[in-house]
Design brief:
Layout (H helix, E strand, L loop, with lengths): L2 H5 L12 E9 L2 E6 L3 E6 L13 E7 L2 E7 H4 L12 E7 L2 E7 L1 E9 L8 H4 L7 E7 L2 E6 L7 H7 L3
Parallel strand pairs: 2-10, 5-7
Antiparallel strand pairs: 1-2, 1-8, 3-6, 4-5, 6-7, 9-10
């Protein structure tokens, strides 16, 4: 299932109203986000990260994951959130996105959630109208909280991807 399929629920994508979708939920500060479970390759503890020169401010560096060099992105920096010290809950979510395998530092990973596609609400226009917000696919009411559903593949434009995927 592609991210575009989630974006256009029930509009000729093969996703019917009420189809079950699985999301991995994670935390950034007090906000909960979700990404399609099929995008997540693995979730790892924070290893030593090798800094790389001349990369965008949100690229923390690279790691060697079983012989493969993977760029590591700070989700806090990418979203313009204040930096905090890493904790025992900090994780790297290794995902398919941004042109290849990429690691995303998050404050913590919560759970796998199964939801019905018909329960996903589009984000408010004033939130999703800007180009920087194209990766927000929708919002899901998860108990007392709102879960922001993201399209990882659209988080970076072409120029940004070229800046850190060529390792």
């Amino acid at each position: 299932m592609s991210n575009m399929a989630l974006m256009k629920l029930g509009k000729g994508t093969g996703i019917g109203q009420g189809e079950l979708i699985q999301l991995v939920s994670f935390m950034l500060g007090n906000e909960e986000y979700g990404v399609e479970v099929l995008r997540v390759r693995e979730i790892i503890r924070l290893p030593d990260i090798t800094k790389m020169p001349n990369t965008p401010h949100y690229v923390e560096g690279v790691i060697n994951l079983r012989g493969k060099v993977i760029p590591i992105i700070s989700m806090r920096k990418r979203f313009g959130l204040p930096e905090v010290e890493y904790s025992i809950h900090t994780r790297i979510m290794v995902m398919d996105g941004a042109g290849g395998l990429t690691g995303f530092i998050v404050d913590g990973v919560s759970e796998v959630i199964r939801i019905h596609s018909s329960d996903i609400q589009p984000p408010p226009t004033m939130v999703s109208d800007g180009l920087d917000q194209e990766f927000i696919m929708g919002v899901f009411s998860h108990g007392e909280r709102l879960l922001i559903i993201m399209a990882v593949g659209r988080m970076f434009n072409h120029e940004e991807q070229q800046g850190f995927i060529s390792y």
